[in-house]
Design a protein that fits this description.
single chain; alpha+beta
Length: 189
């Protein structure tokens, strides 16, 4: 009888461990989505103010100076690495690592298959240098306002400012609804 109970307990424990791990990852993903929302809200607020006070040329300064500060403040607040990346970066410091590049390419494939970009996200446990990390990415869809600085027809004054601040800029030529990049989060385990 004891052996039978021990066997049942062992089997139920073995079966529940993946469920617990899966729930733990989903909880981390949910927390990551909330942090991305916080990042987007702060950045959108800063960009909105800049657009009102000086148009797209003024907004470029927000992405150049304020976005990295917001990312750093959130990284410090949560103890995670929080950033933005893209397959076509404007700032070389935002270049995707191998895992991010692969996820961005999968996002593009998902979009090509008809999936809506707006809620698109991905997460996984990733080992790097014998360190387990929870990785999360949330796609950034190209909205109408984004096209002023990231579109195919950029005004000459905006183009001049971009050329001044980002001589190796690749983040142009987007169309409405394209995946402009992603928010990316690394949580050490």
């Amino acid at each position: 009888m004891i052996q039978k109970l021990f066997f049942i307990f062992t089997c139920s424990l073995a079966l529940s461990t993946p469920v617990i791990a899966d729930n733990h990852l989903k909880d981390r993903a949910s927390s990551s989505k909330q942090v991305v929302q916080e990042f987007m809200k702060q950045l959108k607020g800063e960009l909105g103010q800049a657009m009102k006070s000086g148009g797209p040329v003024n907004a470029i300064s927000v992405c150049n100076s304020k976005a990295p500060v917001i990312a750093k403040e959130l990284s410090d607040k949560y103890g995670w690495e929080i950033a933005r990346t893209s397959l076509k970066v404007r700032n070389p410091e935002n270049t995707a690592d191998a895992w991010e590049d692969e996820v961005l390419r999968k996002f593009e494939n998902r979009k090509d298959m008809g999936e809506d970009v707006k809620p698109m996200a991905y997460f996984a446990m990733v080992e790097n240098n014998q360190q387990q990390n929870f990785r999360f990415m949330k796609a950034i869809p190209t909205a109408e306002v984004c096209l002023k600085c990231h579109g195919q027809n950029i005004a000459p004054d905006v183009k001049a400012k971009l050329d001044e601040l980002y001589p190796n800029d690749k983040a142009r030529g987007y169309k409405l609804g394209d995946i402009r990049g992603a928010f990316t989060i690394t949580q050490p385990m």
